[in-house]
């Protein structure tokens, strides 16, 4: 009997010690809630608008950091300019890139089945980052982009003529997607076949939405549609890869990113398998297509709603056109003259961020704002904690491109649509010149009115106008 009492007492002491340790550890975690079992707070995050999700919890828990569970991951949301600075300054020290599981699934089909069974969700630090394929050879550096500027200009001119000439009302969101996908396919793949590209738009849309969703693979769900679209795109891209290999064998030029991926090899001399190349290209095309199209679309909206700003942009672009002979495309020097137009683009991205935020994986436990974040957790950063905050942007609801003029620039780490630090978006310059080429051509040839100024913005991680932004065009 005494032995039994001793055993029970020992067990109770051990249990008490365990609970005290757990309580102590939990007390060091940021405030917040993990939400429902399994789902966590994913539904609120995805369908309640990410900026509202974050804003509400900043007010409830802390303006600096809070914990949650989204897309299957225990996550710390780091807020504000100090949080942005901390995150961007500690890339590859405390954090590494992390892709949510839906994204991993959509873009990692080339992984052998045996490896999937052994390691169904490998740490992101072990995966190959497709952006290395374009960072290392410098495809997105200004000197390389100069070669593609003429093509961007000509594609934009042609697509605007095809879809706008003689039209009274045009839905600009679908047109922006066609323009940006045509440019991306020529830049990344080296193909310029508008008909072939146009039929891929719906697939890219489904993949874009499917990157951030609840992983429920049943007919009718977002994830199911994303899977089907990814399979269709992969099949098409593998066909393009085979065509590219045949052209290269006959001495074709190696001027695009796809050609580089085909000839690239690892230290052992082994080349990438075709499905892996296809998935990497699908990821790059999705990134280079959706965010640029979103910015172009809402740029049209804000220029249409602000005639005085439109006239100032048009005057800047006409001054550039006046220095060029008829038919001569834009060059790199012209891009540097579009300062006010770039301010307008920046203000568009502040008002409607083309991407709300991204995830990182914690590779070393750290302390921030007095709270401890364990290794293996995820960190989410978002532009919405600063972009509409009156503390950093005076009168934030007002569309005001002049706020970026010298002397009025926002404080550091408050305007971060392209991220920062080592993980600064490598496509920033690509996005800049493709949107500026669009601005030049559209304001030079058209003025317009927004048909429905109160059109709702839909979408969670990727915003889009509910009706496709119809505008009434007037040709100059």
TrEMBL record:
GO terms for biological process: terpenoid biosynthetic process. This is Beta-amyrin 28-monooxygenase. GO terms for cellular component: membrane. The keyword Oxidoreductase applies. Its cofactor is heme. Belongs to the cytochrome P450 family. Residues 114-133 are annotated as: Disordered. It comes from the Eukaryota. GO terms for molecular function: beta-amyrin 28-monooxygenase activity; metal ion binding. Residues 1-25 form the signal peptide. It is a single-pass membrane protein. Its EC number is 1.14.14.126. The keyword Heme applies. InterPro entries: Cyt_P450, Cyt_P450_CS, Cyt_P450_E_grp-I, Cyt_P450_sf. It is found in: Membrane. It comes from Salvia divinorum (Maria pastora). Pfam families: p450. Heme binds at residue 425. Its main location: membrane.
């Amino acid at each position: 009997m005494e032995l039994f009492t001793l055993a029970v007492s020992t067990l109770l002491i051990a249990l008490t010690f365990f609970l005290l340790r757990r309580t102590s550890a939990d007390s060091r975690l940021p405030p917040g809630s993990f939400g429902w079992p399994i789902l966590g707070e994913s539904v609120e995050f995805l369908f309640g608008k990410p900026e509202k999700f974050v804003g509400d919890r900043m007010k409830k828990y802390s303006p600096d950091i809070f914990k949650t569970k989204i897309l299957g991951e225990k996550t710390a949301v780091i807020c504000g300019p100090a949080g942005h600075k901390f995150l961007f300054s500690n890339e590859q020290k405390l954090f590494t890139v992390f892709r949510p599981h839906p994204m991993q699934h959509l873009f990692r089909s080339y992984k052998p089945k045996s490896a999937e069974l052994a390691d169904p969700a490998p740490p992101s630090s072990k995966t190959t980052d497709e952006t290395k394929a374009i960072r290392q050879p410098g495809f997105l550096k200004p000197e390389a982009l100069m070669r593609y500027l003429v093509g961007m200009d000509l594609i934009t001119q042609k697509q605007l003529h095809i879809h706008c000439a003689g039209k009274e009302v045009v839905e600009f969101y679908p047109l922006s997607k066609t323009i940006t996908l045509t440019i991306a396919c020529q830049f990344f793949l080296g193909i310029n076949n508008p008909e072939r590209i146009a039929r891929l738009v719906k697939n890219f849309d489904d993949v874009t939405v499917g990157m951030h969703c609840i992983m429920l693979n049943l007919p009718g769900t977002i994830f199911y549609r994303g899977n089907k679209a990814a399979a269709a795109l992969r099949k098409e891209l593998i066909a393009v890869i085979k065509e590219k290999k045949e052209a290269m064998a006959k001495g074709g030029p190696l001027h695009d990113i796809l050609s580089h991926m085909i000839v690239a090899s690892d230290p052992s001399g082994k080349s990438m398998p075709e499905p892996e190349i296809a998935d990497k290209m699908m990821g790059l095309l999705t990134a280079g297509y959706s965010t640029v199209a979103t910015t172009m679309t809402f740029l049209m909206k804000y220029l249409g709603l602000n005639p005085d700003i439109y006239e100032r942009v048009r005057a800047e672009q006409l001054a550039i056109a006046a220095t060029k002979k008829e038919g001569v495309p834009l060059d790199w020097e012209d891009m540097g003259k579009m300062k006010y137009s770039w301010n307008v683009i920046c203000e568009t991205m502040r008002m409607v961020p083309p991407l709300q935020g991204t995830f990182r994986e914690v590779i070393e436990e750290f302390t921030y704002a007095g709270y401890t974040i364990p290794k293996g957790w995820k960190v989410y950063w978002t532009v919405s904690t600063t972009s509409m905050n009156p503390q950093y942007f005076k009168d934030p609801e007002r569309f005001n491109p002049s706020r970026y003029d010298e002397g009025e620039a926002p404080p550091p780490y408050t305007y971060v649509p392209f991220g920062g630090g080592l993980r600064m978006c490598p496509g920033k310059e690509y996005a800049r010149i493709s949107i500026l080429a669009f601005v030049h051509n559209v304001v030079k040839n058209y003025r317009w009115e927004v048909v429905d100024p109160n059109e709702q913005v839909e979408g969670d991680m990727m915003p889009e106008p509910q009706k496709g932004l119809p505008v009434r065009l007037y040709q100059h």
